[in-house]
Amino acid sequence: MSHLSRATTELKKPEFLLKSIESNRTNYIEVNSKKNDILVPQSNNSPIFLYKKSKNYDLVNDISFWVQSIPNDLFVKRLKKFYAQSAIIASNSMFEVQLMKSEINKVEFVIERYQTTNYL
Questions:
Q1: Could you tell me where the beta strands, DSSP code E, fall in the chain?
Q2: pTM score
Q3: I need a surface site. Which of 24, 26, 86, 103 has the fewest CB within 10 A?
Q4: How far is 35 from 98, CA to CA, in rounded Å?
Q5: What are the pLDDT digits (tens) for 50-103?
């Protein structure tokens, strides 16, 4: 019996989502490049599907065929965590951002800003 699960996320930008999937040590396939749909294959041929609905991504999968090494809800939490890390690092052009430590429930960044002085 199939048990399809749909989780709406706050994830919007495909480039950060793809980086978060890679950071989660998971392979992916971009299915529809115009819509930025993403397929995460599993060993049992029952993939995890991330599709863009409106502005956000929805994650759809059959829970009875989930074969990832972590539970479904933890997979989504990790995607969100890595997504946030990618967004923070990419969005701070005025600062130097370094990821110092990343644990399951905690992420530490060092953010530095150097003042430039104009000598005329």
A1: 4-8, 29-32, 37-40, 48-53, 56-62, 96-102, 107-112
A2: 0.73
A3: 103
A4: 31
A5: 888 888 898 888 888 888 888 888 888 888 888 888 887 777 666 666 666 666
End-to-end CA distance of the chain: 75
Instruction: Give the residue-averaged pLDDT of 27-39.
Output: 77
Walk me through the domains of the chain, giving residue ranges and CATH numbers. 4-92 (3.30.310)
Distance CA 38, CA 97 (A): 28
User: Residues with Cβ < 8 Å from 80, sequence gap 6 or more?
Assistant: 9, 10, 11, 20
Token duo for residue 82: 């890595």
Place of tokens 């399951």: 104
Q: What are residue 109's DSSP bridge partners?
A: 99
Is residue 22 left, alpha or beta, with left meaning phi > 0 and alpha meaning psi from -120 to 50?
alpha
Query: Distance (Å, rounded) from C-alpha 112 to C-alpha 109?
Result: 10
**47 pLDDT tier (thresholds 50, 70, 90):** confident
Helix (H, G, I), strand (E, B) or coil at 98: strand
